[in-house]
Amino acid sequence: MTTQQLIEQIQIKKSFLCVGLDVDLNKIPQHLLTAEDPIFEFNKAIIDATHDLCVAYKPNIAFFEAYGIKGWQSLKKTIDYINQNYPELFTIADAKRGDIGNTSAMYAKAFFEDLAFDSVTVAPYMGKDSVEPFLAFEGKHTIMLALTSNEGAFDFQTLNVNGKELYKQVIETSKTWENSENLMYVVGATKAEYFTEIRKIIPDSFLLVPGVGAQGGSLQEVCKYGMSATVGLLINSSRGIIYASNEQDFAQKAREEALKLQQEMKTILVSGLI
User: Fold this and answer.
1) What is the number of alpha carbons within 13 Å of residue 92 lying toward its C-beta?
2) Is 77 one of the catalytic residues?
3) Exactly one of 44, 76, 77, 96 is catalytic; which is it?
């Protein structure tokens, strides 16, 4: 999917919502556990109930890998289901990969070719030769960790190095890498006050923003400081949507929560106040 196609979906749906698929068998409705593939059945129901309210889905790969080969098969079935039934949706493999060049190339091949994701999250700590193999895939996007929403983000990301915060140096350096036009960035919603500074460096890039809702991030604040001329935001919500209920009505409750966010996004977009 191209960036322009993603922008068009945002305009059509009046939404920049990304639904995170973090499937924990201890949290899904008990009646699904008797199914042949409970993870896929849960995902399918969530996707069918919310696909018209969001523009992206983000399976968290760890929540599939934790169940071994069965979990990987569930992941494959999930991404195939999205691609076959809702091809207009942007897909994100939340894998946070990043290794030496030839290893990164294999990770990229796995997610972009075998699984056919539109994008994958990566960690930039090892530098450009760990990220450029992902960027080499035409028509695919690489979403690089920039400033995360976890408590430990302050251990390194905001350290002052030679007069500049490290996360700013990372973002600035990434712009010099080959095919950097294929980069998007992860910026946590709980760091809303940093968006202004980030937009000075990357005014037009898409930002994947976790942390709205369950982690306390404010959608209004993120949009106020982080929205670009073409929106440029994918606001992720996982637990607040997919675990809205663990009863038979889980999919309907997930839709209701997704609708609340979509309607808030629509108000922001239509009002033009942000």
Assistant:
1) 33
2) no
3) 96
